[in-house]
Every structure is written in C-alpha cells, then in structure tokens.
Target: UPF0370 protein E0L21_02765
Amino acid sequence: MDWLAKYWWILVLVFLLGVLINVIKDLSRVDHKKFLANKPDLPPHRDFNDKWDDDDDWPKQDQPKK
Model:
C-alpha cells in the first residue's frame, strides 16, 4: 500500500483521461446539424423583475443638475 500513497495521482490522471476519452467519443456521436434543424421552440422567458422596470431610481438625462 506504500505505492498507493506515493502514486495516487497517477490513478487520478488515468481516471480523468478515461473520462475525457468518453466525453470526446460521446460528443462525436452528436449530430448538431440534425438537432438545429429540428430544434424545439423555447417558451417565452418569465421575467419576475418586470414590476421594477418602470420604477427606475436613476435620474432622467434631460434634468438639469441642482
């Protein structure tokens, strides 16, 4: 078990390399042109801050400075 204490980082690198290879393989299977051709419509965005849009605290630009 002494080798595990010394070389644990090699096992982590091998694991990360395996994850990276699987991600590349899975992303190569994705057909982005087919997805973009049949892309579903997104519902409208609900903005819950719209009630504060009219109540701006910023001064108007055409007001003279006091």
Remarks:
- The chain has a mean pLDDT of 83.
- The helical segments are 2-6, 8-29, 32-37.
- The radius of gyration is 27 Å.
- Residues 1-29 form one domain.
